Amino acid sequence: MRRNHSTLWVLAILFATASLPMTAMGAEVGEETADGAKSVIFLIGDGMGYAQLTAARWEKAGGDQPGYQPTLDNYQTTRLYMDGMEYAGHISTHSLDSWITDSAAAVTAMATGQKTYNDVISVGNITAHGEIMGRNNATLYAVPLKTILEMADEAGKATGVVSTSRITHATPAGYYSHVAFRDWEDEIAEQCIESDMEVAMGGGASKFSFDNRSLLEEAPSLGWTVVRNGRELSAVDPASTDRLLGIFTDSHMSYELDRDPAAEPSLAEMTEKAIEILSRDDDGFFLIVEGARIDHAGHARDYKRAVGDTLAFDEAVKVALDYAAENPETLVVVTADHECGGLVLGANSSEYIEGWAPNFGSGAYPVSDSYADLQILEEASHTATDVPIFASGPGAIEFSRGLIDNTEVFEILKAAMGL
């Protein structure tokens, strides 16, 4: 029923091997799967690439402890929860105007099936992002692109978004809002509380106050139960809560290593509460879960926090998989919007740097050195590398067709739910 309401992050020359959009192979995309998904839990590790997953496995296995020696037994028993999912594949991530996407363009591709410019969130009919076009001009011409969450809502399913970023940040916003520039978070916040979602949780209280308005004070009149800390969230009774808005911090939520459990719930706790509320809908639900701060730690070159938040994200994956185990009509998908930081897990050695040097003034350099000079980054950025995708449940096999484009995620989810 529908409710009406010590590792170095280094920069080397990258030879991008990104893929152009591919035609779907195997089952016809858009054709409903034999056993459709009643509910979908779609989890996004923002900035999570293959190296971040490997590093998280090492950490989980105790690889950061002195004298640790990897064995088959200790490695296999400390795999990530997502490693045990039924199917796996790869996603290309480029945007409409760049081989290296940002989160706004990436989420638009996955949420709507359409490529767009970096910095644009789920709108079309524009020639650049809104800051270039000007806010008034962009708003005049921009056309909202219907998202998979909005389609699920129209089909009568309950919907929600939870994130460890500001809930108005690009990735969560891409599923419920439509703006030509990602920094217009006041407009995104307004669209959030005016949406038909049943659950929205994350950080970003500062974005809900502007022009002498407090959207958090207005929210209860729109049917929202508002909670502001972990204790209040724990006290929420899912059976009597129709709409839940949890805004726990002024900006982004804390990294997992820095989190105060009483003040801020974990991503796993938010995911569990969201499922408890959304699963009351007899028609099923569609839930977005974002582990946002993997990306932020990547930008900051903070290895420990990138790994810590990857492991915290994996705990949210476990919550989703546990629910699906009891409710097999649930499709669980885990992926990333892009990789961030260019994390390299390599030998801790300066042998190459010490062993090679240009031989200036002695004639032609006899060997063409194919290695780029290594530079320690002050701040890291997104990369063009492909990202992993894992899936279990009805329609999950479609994500295992080798390399798919991020726009195909939308089509596969749409087919799985029969939308």
In a few lines, what is going on in this structure?
With 419 residues, the protein is α/β, with parallel strands linked by helices.
Explain this structure to me?
- The protein has helices spanning 50-61, 72-76, 103-112, 130-133, 135-141, 148-154, 170-173, 185-194, 215-218, 230-235, 267-278, 293-299, 303-326, 351-355, 406-417, and strands at 10-11, 39-45, 87-92, 123-124, 143-144, 158-166, 199-203, 209-210, 213-214, 225-227, 244-247, 285-291, 330-335, 375-376, 387-392, 403-405.
- Helix 1 (50-61) crosses helix 13 (303-326), helix 3 runs parallel beside helix 15 (406-417) and helix 11 (267-278) runs parallel beside helix 13.
- It has a single domain, classed as 3-Layer(aba) Sandwich (Alkaline Phosphatase, subunit A).
- It has 419 residues and is of the alpha/beta class.
- The protein is built from 15 helices and 16 strands.
Describe the SSE topology.
Layout: E1 10-11, E2 39-45, H1 50-61, H2 72-76, E3 87-92, H3 103-112, E4 123-124, H4 130-133, H5 135-141, E5 143-144, H6 148-154, E6 158-166, H7 170-173, H8 185-194, E7 199-203, E8 209-210, E9 213-214, H9 215-218, E10 225-227, H10 230-235, E11 244-247, H11 267-278, E12 285-291, H12 293-299, H13 303-326, E13 330-335, H14 351-355, E14 375-376, E15 387-392, E16 403-405, H15 406-417
Parallel strand pairs: 2-12, 2-13, 3-16, 6-7, 6-12, 7-11, 10-11
Antiparallel strand pairs: 1-14, 3-15, 4-5, 8-9, 13-15
